Amino acid sequence: MSAFAPPDGYVAPAWPGLYNPLHPSEAQFLYLRQDIWHYTVLWSLIFYAAAYGLAATWGFMVFVRTTPTLAWILPVVFLAVAGAVGMLTGTVFGLVLAAVYNAGNFKMSTWTPLLWSLLQMLITLINAASPMSTYL
Predict the structure, then answer these.
(1) What whole-number distance in Å separates Cα of residue 53 and Cα of residue 82?
(2) Between 14 and 118, whose confidence is greater?
(3) pTM above 0.90, yes or no
(4) pLDDT, tens digit, for every residue of 84-99?
(5) What span, in angstroms and rounded, lies between the C-alpha atoms of 52 and 31?
(6) What pLDDT is recorded for position 135?
(7) Which whole-number Å values give the CA distances from 65 to 29, 61, 70, 71, 72, in the listed order?
(8) pLDDT of residue 113
């Protein structure tokens, strides 16, 4: 049994490496574990920062009139949590995706980390709705 190896002359595509899926000749692929991890972590950080950033903006607007000190701390805390969660989930998903794709000797489209990162962020938002309705 031979170990998985990328094609000769493989160079990781420049991030974000997205291509038009309607033109398969332009397709770019990821092969190495560190490339798959890198793409997944970056997309996770972007999506989590956007979601938590919107929540932080809303919280800032709500609290700025009543408690200005809390209002200024809120975005910093939210973005720090977004970075930690994005890094953690991106690392877990990235390493699992890399293990699965490399175990099967598959090439990974550069769209795959984007879609998995979006999916994990949406699942986080869905899971946040249940406790939020309990608190309100």
Answers:
(1) 8
(2) 118
(3) no
(4) 999 999 999 999 999 9
(5) 31
(6) 62
(7) 50, 8, 10, 8, 11
(8) 93
Residue identified by tokens 């809303």 is: 58
Supply the mean pLDDT for the chain. 87
Give the helix, strand, coil percentages of the chain, each rounded to 5: 70, 5, 25
**Among the listed residues 38, 37, 10, 16, the one whose alpha carbon sits nearest the alpha carbon of residue 94:** 37
Only one residue has tokens 């970056």, namely: 42
Cβ contacts of 95 within 8 Å, gap of 6 or more: 33, 37
- On whether the CB atoms of residues 41 and 90 are closer than 8 A, the answer is yes
Is-contact 54 69, C-beta < 8 A? Answer: no
What gap in Å lies between CA 113 and CA 118, rounded to an integer?
Answer: 8
Report which residue type is found at 132. M
Taking every pair of C-alpha atoms in the chain, what is the biggest distance, in angstroms? Answer: 66
Task: Decide if 119 contacts 40 (C-beta within 8 A).
Answer: no
Tens-digit pLDDT profile for residues 37-96: 999 999 999 999 999 999 999 989 998 889 888 888 989 999 999 999 999 999 999 999
Token readout for 85 is 């969660």
